[in-house]
């Protein structure tokens, strides 16, 4: 096992999510570890020990990751505590959710309505942002279908190689 490479990956994902998504660094570290750990199911205590983190920070990170669907809670037979693992289709569900475009557009419409009686030069900033979200909203269903077709083909090829 390339321990230093795995540690670097976990730390880099923590930094990446902190910078790009504004999450606490531990959120990315937990997700990073759950993407590469063996066994794939880890208890909160195991996460805290491996990541050298407090139980509170692990609790906060797992709660956020559960809420957005990137990890799932599981329990192994006979155990009295939960374990966490990366959700197999979590990224698909997260990246392709419709509300990532609908909700911002709903809020932007509130702003545009509020500026309806104001001088026209106050609207372009919101109109441009609304146009961007509308552009993505229109194209995402087609992109999703293209992605799913390619994903199915990749899965078929992978299954063919494992026989």
Shape: extended
Write down the Rg: 21 Å
Quaternary organisation of the protein chains: single chain
> Structural class of the helix and strand makeup?
mainly alpha
Q: Calculate the terminal CA-CA distance, rounded to whole Å.
A: 26 Å
| Low-pLDDT stretches | none
Helix content estimate: 55-70%
Averaging pLDDT over every residue, what do you get?
A: 93
Largest sheet: 3 strands, antiparallel
Strand percentage lies at 5-15%
Brief write-up:
By secondary structure, the chain is mainly α.
Task: Explain the overall architecture.
This protein is mainly α and 163 residues long. Helices cover 69% and strands 6% of the residues. It is built from seven helices and three strands; from the N terminus they run ααβααββααα. A hairpin with an 8-residue loop joins strand 2 (71-74) and strand 3 (83-86). Helix 1 packs across helix 2 (25-36), helix 2 (25-36) crosses helix 4 and helix 6 (99-114) runs antiparallel to helix 7 (124-161). The longest helix has 38 residues, at 124-161. The protein is extended. The mean pLDDT is 93.
């Amino acid at each position: 096992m390339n321990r230093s490479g795995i540690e670097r990956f976990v730390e880099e994902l923590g930094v990446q999510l902190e910078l790009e998504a504004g999450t606490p660094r531990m959120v990315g570290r937990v997700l990073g570890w759950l993407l590469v750990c063996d066994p794939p199911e880890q208890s909160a205590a195991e996460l805290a020990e491996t990541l050298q983190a407090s139980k509170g920070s692990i609790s906060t990170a797992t709660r956020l990751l559960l809420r957005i669907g990137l990890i799932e809670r599981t329990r192994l037979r006979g155990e009295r505590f939960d374990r966490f693992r990366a959700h197999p289709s979590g990224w698909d569900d997260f990246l392709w959710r419709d509300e990532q475009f609908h909700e911002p557009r709903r809020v932007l419409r509130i702003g545009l309505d509020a500026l309806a009686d104001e001088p026209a030069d106050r609207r372009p900033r919101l109109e441009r942002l609304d146009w961007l979200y509308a552009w993505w909203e229109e194209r995402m269903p087609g992109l999703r279908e293209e992605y799913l077709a390619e994903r199915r083909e990749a899965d078929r090829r992978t299954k063919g190689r494992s026989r």
